Amino acid sequence: MNEFFVQNTEAIQKILSAYPAGNKRPAVMPLLYLAQRTNGFIQKKTLDEIAEILEITPTEVASIVGFYTLYHDEPGGRYHLQVCTDLPCALRGADRFLQDLCDNLGIKVGETTADGLITIEEVKCLAGCHHAPLFQVQGDGDISYHEDQTVDAAMQLIAELKKKAAEREGTNA
Amino acid sequence: MPKDITLTIDGQTVTAPAGTLVVDAAKRIGINIPVFCYHPKLEPVGMCRMCLVEIGRPVIDRTTNNPVFEADGKPKIQFGPKLETACTTPISEGMVVVGLSDKVKAARKDVLEFLLTSHPLDCPICDKGGECPLQNQTLEYGSADSRFLLDEKMRLSKHVPLGDLIFLDRERCIQCARCVRFQTEIVDDPVIGFYNRGRKLEIITDSQPGFDSIFSGNTTDICPVGALTTADFRFGARPWEMNNAASLCTHCPVGCNTTINVRREAKTGGNVSIKRIMPRQNETVNEIWMCDKGRFAYHFADSPDRLKNPLIRKGSELFQTTWTEALSAASEKIKQAGSGLVTLASGRLTNEDIYNLRKLTETQGGTFIGYSRMAGGEIVNRFGMLPGSNLGDLGKDSVIVVVSSDLHEEAPIWWLRVREAVKRGAVLISISIRPTRLDKIAAKTLRVEPGREALAVDAILTGDMADIVKQAKHLLVFYGSDGLGRKATGQLAAACARLLETSGHARRINSGLIPVWERGNTQGLWDMGAHPADQIVERIASARVLLVAGADPANDDPMMERALEKTEFLIVQDLFATATARKADIVFPVLAFTEREGTYTSGERRVQRFYPAVPAPEGLKADYEIAAEMGAELGLALESSAASLVFQQLAAEIPQYSGLTYPLLAKTSDQWPIVGRPDVYFGGTSYANRQGLGIHLPLLPLEDFEIPSGDLDMSLHPDAHELAVYPVTRLLDRGITVTTSPLLASRLAQADLFIHPATARKMFLNADMQVMLPVDGAAYPVRIVLDETVPEGAALIPRSAGVPIHEPQVAQVAPPVGDHASRVRS
Amino acid sequence: MSAYILYRHRDIPNLNQLDVYQKNGGFEAIKKAIKTMSPAAVLNEVKDSGLRGRGGAGFPTGMKWSFLPGNLWPHYVVANADESEPGTFKDREILESNPFQFLEGLMLAAYAVQANDAYIYLRGEFWQIARRLDTCIEELYAEGLLGDKLFGTKYSLRLHTHLGAGAYICGEETALLESIEGHLGQPRLRPPFPATFGLFGKPTVINNVETLTNLPPIIEKGAAWFKTLGTEKSPGVKIFSLSGCVNKPGNYELPLGTTFRELIFTHGGGIPDGRTIKAIMSAGASSVIVPADDRALDTPMDYESTQANLNAPLGSASVIILDDSVNMAWLVNKTVHFFRHESCGKCTPCREGTYWMSHLTRRIAAGEAAPDDIDLLNIVARQMQGKCLCALGEFSTMAVTSGIEKFRADFEKLVNH
Ligand SMILES: Cc1cc2nc3c(=O)[nH]c(=O)nc-3n(C[C@H](O)[C@H](O)[C@H](O)COP(=O)(O)O)c2cc1C
Ligand code: SF4
Ligand code: FES
Description:
The complex is a heterotrimer. Chain B is an alpha/beta fold. Chain C is built from 19 helices and nine strands.
């Protein structure tokens, strides 16, 4: 049984309806987002289920996951905090900001905090160069921008994320 | 026919059909434009950038639409600012291609340097060394020293199993995507793909089992570097150390042309051994492809279990004996038997073998029987393809009907070629009792009740496809034995012939009937006069001498097994001590196809020749030789010294073969696309075919022939508590020629009984349950597998997978409790 | 009324709400077009306006539409909202703050080429924008501004958003199409061009968000009005994304032909910390590096002048300012790493060249390189030029060769440590 389909039938059918009838493959990216929203990353099982729904091979789905950087096929932190350090941002102190933020959290770029909450990543231009330093937070099925940042503001945000995560756990339990 | 276009390449004028790519036009005049990603069998992608050339086009005056001329009267040519890829640019009238300028040479050097920055340059230990386009290009365009720092090279894993059969060396991969494109475009198994991007692109597979495709071996041929290797050949030998012999694949009626590479080796005591089998280009048969069964299942020939001496029965045991003793004992018995001699010959034998065996049998007044589960050869010989036909010519305005055959499993290359024809516009009608891979490409799928296939064929010309079929220029019909017994296949063949005749396609070019025989040379059996017979069990039981060649009835059918007990005297010619051989009074060990020469006739009725790849082992003889030597003792003059001489005799006698000779069969001509010629090809492995394209047989005359008719409804009618069991064919069965190849072991068909879940519920059966399946008075343990594609009330069982079932039959399966199991075979 | 043409939200609060947009003349253009104009008339109006694509190449929009064959259907329109060029952030502001004008523009383009389905391809990072656009689109269906038989005519239109997932190459139009189709974002071979073989193999128009946002005012006010703005060959206004070493980075909607000097010093507030301007990149990370001399500063920013005066394309007009504290070898290391990260890997020169260059620039920037490495870097870049399958590979070499040519001293300072 295709659990992913059963759990998301309506959403999946809506996604498929945006593309020409009989052509399911274009739904692969939206479905991967849907999968990532539920688990935080794309599990092999879900990947196989997506392949089955779209009538393509798991390899073809895995290829998509591999090519596009916003998909994760390994569990990382609950939130991916992705700092832009591309040229325009770097000209406005983004490298420094990233370093300071990492020092504050006691982890290196690419690592996850011990509580599993935050993975810090370096990314390319986010189209917010005039508001550097900035980062986006990817997690809980959402991507949000946080511009004109300071390390203090970022640490405060992290504290809020922590609270939010705890609350969610609470309501889930 | 596309119109011809003339252009110049490096000063030489060349004319080629419109649509030809610059790179291919160049090959026609022997100019090699280097390529890596381009492959003439794949869609061009222009991604490696190795083939960059300067291209100029005549300047056209926009107002008059006439070409502009230079002062000297030559057309004015305009060159673009950038180099263009010869592999993606179609030729156009008056085009001027420059592939030898300094600019082009510099570009090749540049692109090559890029490719080599991350390449490990491990040619001395690479399997592709010696036949590697990258290596060859490097010799031509590469520079001696690297400007790239060694420690900045990508370091990647070198021994990545993509599955049991294919290994990947990630460092050697140059990301040309040939393998991925082959799997996607040609065989529709996109089970390998790219992961990541940029310099991190790497080949992955996510299928279960890994690289799950029956065509996977072909990727190792088209890989232009040593990144993909087969588990079989890997580290086996260096290409230049090997000799080669032209051969044929014997596993199915397609008759793929192959090359066998051999090498003399210390580990086999200085003997010559086979290192690999590769496709050999024959555009009318297998193009340049072959399936993994053909590529990997050849190890039966080097199996240590092969018979090495004649055996003779003394009491209850078989003992080694000499040829002299065995031959004279056998011929003595045959002489005594007279017309009590019955010979069973299978489509595993060559034409020469079958011919001599027939002569031997006939002169004694004996009965000569073709051992085959399919009928209809006499129809095929009159309604088959005309000489000059080619599956590759089918496309728009062609209809292909496939009935009762899962071509993908039974004759994989035909499946591939039908798919190519459909891509070119052919209309496919697929008729079967269950879904097969053909359905995906079929314009029309007719699902029929088991046993009513012939009726469905008869109904085509009154159904909704009638007009399309009638109006088609070509109509090709494949018939097989999926779920059918011998009689039913005969009726099916007749129905197909009626279809061809009524629609007006009979005996027309690129039209006709193709039988999906179960063996490589079943067609030869029919041609040589060995027809299957009724009442075979009785004939076996009552034979005074039974001569069995290339067959194992004791293993195929419990009734035949029991009948063999009654046979007075049994002579067997085989490679192995089969169940039948173990019952024999005399056993003759025979040469494998790799050790001798001969001819086979494919299902398309193309006679093809194969050559010895390794020296014949001491003490073994070819089947035709044994027949001739037995004959000699009986005073018969049969050829025993060379297959070519036997062939001369048979050609003199059998009308369709008249005029054929070994030299004619060895003839070749230019093939298009050029992929075989090593001088102008960067495909990697050489597919050169220098030893014969084979000859397509004429049809037998129609006079005095009537298409047989009869009861077309062959359906079974099981009671509520019974199942109708239908045998189906799997590519990788448990036949002796397959099980001896350990690489394929994990993919072999099992003794599984496939039933629909609804059937299972009704009969109180569950998935994975072990039950006893009664077949002709014996019972066999099978595992229940639930499969929604199986018709309700029916059960499918793979042939040659442990349960000897020849004909469809009604059976009452029982859970293995109490003593339902009347007789369990060990 | 607003002084802005594209960024009208800067004058009109809450323009991203449907009722506000409608109160301010929203959807009049599409109503006018569908009810009173033939598709060909819309196409001609756009052709006459001289509008050129704002996505980078500056190709005349009306002409692009006219390439679609009339005997092959369906047609598709795709809005390119991938906005991933470092230094470009103009489309995002439109999408966030003036989404309905963009959607109306997209509808006009679709009507002009008679497409019944249009897709908006957004970079994956624009997740929230996409969700808001989805809501906007829902509202339009509810209002009868989208859907079947619009305004009582036979014309039907549906809009769909499709999110990318972190790949700059998907801004390239054929890679974008591959991505919508569910494949790796790798560029296709051209020809065939999208106009004949585009999305799902059908004739397709691909336009940038800003290009499309220009359409409602053009249809409303006419081509003649549009041509009163900008220069003769580059009519209209353009949004300049100003970033880097400048006091007031941000988006500036100005007529094409405005000089660099005016953008940087009048609007952008000049260079911070009393530093001096050293160089300019006019089209994001893909640009050549132009020394900021008077000639450069006084060059009008339009498609012809920047090319003619500075040998630099205007591109998407993402102007990155570099002051005298910036070492160009450091800069080149940044851009090269960007392109190495974004190379799709399909063609050899780009895949291997960006990888190789990134090692060289890293070593140079880190002071670990040998003097020869500067020349080698230059050679590798030139070796890539003219050989790549798509423009990304070429883009990656622009800063490298111009940087070494114009600012070699910066490189030498780092290698002669
Ligand atoms: C590597 C590369 C990246 C591109 N990125 C974008 C982009 O992010 N947004 C965009 O509108 N156009 C981008 N383009 C340009 C598009 O390919 C295309 O020319 C444009 O969308 C056409 O729209 P226009 O005619 O309205 O400008 C890019 C081109 C290349 C080669
Ligand atoms: S230049 Fe080549 S590798 Fe680079 S992005 Fe374009 S196609 Fe891909
Ligand atoms: S680009 Fe032409 S062969 Fe690869």
